[in-house]
Design a protein that fits this description.
This protein is an alpha+beta fold. 20% of the residues lie in helices and 23% in strands. It has three domains: 279 residues, Aldolase class I (TIM Barrel, Alpha-Beta Barrel); 82 residues, Immunoglobulin-like (Sandwich), CATH 2.60.40; 129 residues, Trefoil (Trefoil (Acidic Fibroblast Growth Factor, subunit A)), CATH 2.80.10.50. The strands form seven sheets. An eight-stranded parallel β-sheet has the order 7-6-5-4-3-2-1-8. It is globular and about 70 Å long.
């Protein structure tokens, strides 16, 4: 296994794509015909019960490129088991490209390279599992992987069965050599093949943010890459942050925006920049997949990767991705509501000079207290403030606070999907109708106007706009559990007023009951109703 001083540099994104183009040209003749997905409704939600919080683990590509092996994976798993990473929440040990031979066997199955994996993937998985960890593997939704090994296009059922039989727990599915077939078609085919195996396999879509994957990814995978490949430089990290930070409305429990693997410990990233990447990824509720040489990671690298206070923000069960509160001259303020009513705030200095970044409790959605408690998530120090939140932030640095006190959930004026935390779906007006009295439901999130709600200053939840505007309404002013929740012409009555609470519940002002899903169901088309509040996931929502 290469040491930290001799490890090979992974191929740059451009090289990986170049390899892909070469192989796609050679293999174009083997393209699989495009299958129609239909246009009536989005595909059914994934519903595999995995990744209720963003996945955490390791992937070998950033540090080792094609130099993957059984011994590398085992030594990494052992290191994670003993160095505090497993205890901190890192679960998956993921194999990337180049693990197989260049040809399938006579039965059409993928063959693990016997020189690299003498015990096969099954033997490697057994070892990883013996440590209480899980094993991930890589494949490609094309005719060949990015490095030119056999892809899964046209072999999805066979390959999914192989992964399941080997004990694989996670699939990273890349996008090279795709022959022009729609990504949604190719990724959905593998989704269904994985589901048919009966084994829970976390499904990570790696199509580089193409085809606006965030608008359909929740119905197909547990996470989806929102950008091209990351490199171990500040400029690469910054560019990816900018691309990912505006996509918060598409993320939630079971389905996450993925700005790519962590480069902490790699390349030219400084200690300050490493802390910034970890802070920003946690604030954006991103998967935390370490990509460095774990057995030889420095104490400084491990101290970043295992910061429990920052990890708690990423893994918060409310599952809301942080959003940009303000950004001026490269001085950014992000806020992320947390399940217990706290708010995580990241003050990020993009510039090359130390600068003071300031915001307020009200700006991040906190009100109602004469004093707020600030916990610095990197130093652990606590302080109090009457409302101003400010810090001197070094160049390329991030100061991260957890803000407690008062009330939160300041969503007035916020427009976006109303995500059902328990199912990962969105509150939906069936078939985009504008007919008053139509009972609302949950459906796979698709970004449609019939899933776009605005919390108004009068505490209504309105859908559509202009002359077609309707409001969320408790049927016939009734206040009993089981009352249907519908759309009706906006009229300002109390049965159309809703409190969006810091614990994620949405309660009717008139009834005091919670907006919930009948029977706690998670399937597309499950109907919304008033329920006695019980704290269940089916009664928790996030807006925006």
């Amino acid at each position: 296994m290469p040491t930290s001083t001799t490890r090979p540099l992974p191929p740059l994104p451009s090289l990986r794509r170049t390899l892909a183009l070469l192989f796609s040209t050679a293999l174009l003749a083997f393209a699989v015909p495009l299958l129609s997905l239909g246009t009536a409704r989005p595909a059914a939600a994934l519903g595999n019960g995995l990744a209720p919080t963003p996945q955490m683990g390791f992937n070998d590509w950033n540090a080792y490129g094609c130099n993957v092996s059984e011994s590398l994976i085992k030594s990494t798993a052992q290191a994670m088991h003993t160095n505090g990473m497993q205890a901190a929440g890192y679960t998956y040990v993921n194999i990337d490209d180049c693990w197989m031979t260049h040809n399938r066997d006579s039965g059409g199955h993928l063959v693990p390279d016997p020189a690299k994996f003498p015990d096969g993937i099954k033997g490697t998985a057994d070892y990883v599992h013996s440590l209480g960890l899980k094993l991930g593997i890589y494949e490609d939704a094309g005719t060949a992987t990015c490095a030119g090994y056999p892809g899964s296009l046209g072999h999805e059922t066979t390959d999914a069965q192989s992964f399941a039989s080997w004990g694989v727990d996670y699939l990273k599915y890349d996008n090279c050599n795709n022959t022009g077939v729609s990504a949604r078609t190719r990724y959905t085919t593998m989704r269904d093949a994985l589901a048919a195996t009966g084994r829970p396999i976390l499904y990570s879509l790696c199509n580089w943010g193409q085809e606006n994957v965030w608008t359909w990814g929740a119905s197909v995978g547990n996470s989806w890459r929102t950008t091209g490949d990351i490199s171990p430089t500040y400029s690469s990290m910054l560019s990816i942050f900018h691309s990912n930070v505006g996509l918060a409305s598409y993320a939630g429990p079971g389905h996450w925006n993925d700005p790519d693997m962590l480069e902490i410990g790699n390349g030219s990233m400084t200690a300050t920049e490493n802390r910034s990447e970890f802070s920003l990824w946690a604030e954006m509720a991103a998967p935390l997949i370490a990509g460095t040489n774990i057995p030889q990671a420095s104490s400084a690298t491990l101290s970043v990767l295992t910061n429990s206070r920052v990890i708690a923000v990423d893994q918060d069960p409310l599952g809301k991705q942080g959003t940009m509160v303000s950004s001026s001259g490269g001085l950014d303020v992000l806020a992320k509501p947390l399940a217990n009513g706290d708010v995580s705030v990241a003050l990020f200095n993009e510039t090359g000079s130390t600068a003071t970044i300031t915001t307020t409790a009200s700006a991040i959605g906190k009100t109602g207290a004469s004093a707020y408690t600030l916990t610095d998530l990197w130093s652990g120090a606590t302080s109090t403030t009457s409302g101003t939140i400010s810090a001197s932030v070094p160049a390329h640095g991030t100061v991260m606070y957890r803000v407690a006190g008062g009330t939160s959930g300041g969503t007035t004026g916020v427009t976006g999907p109303l995500h059902a935390v328990g199912s990962g779906k969105c509150l939906d007006v069936p078939n985009a109708t504008t007919t008053a009295g139509t009972q609302v439901e949950i459906w796979s999130c698709n970004g449609g106007a019939n899933q776009t709600w605005t919390h108004t200053a009068s505490d209504q939840l309105s859908v559509y706009s202009g002359s077609g505007q309707m409001c969320l309404d408790a049927y016939d002013n009734r206040t009993a559990p089981g009352t249907k929740v519908e759309i009706w012409q906006c009229n300002g009555q109390s049965n159309q007023q809703w409190s969006l609470n810091s614990d994620g519940t949405v309660t009717g002002r008139q009834s005091g009951l919670c907006l919930g899903v009948a029977g706690g169901a998670t399937a597309d088309g499950a109907l919304a109703e008033l329920q006695t509040c019980d704290g269940s996931g089916g009664q928790r929502w996030t807006l925006g």
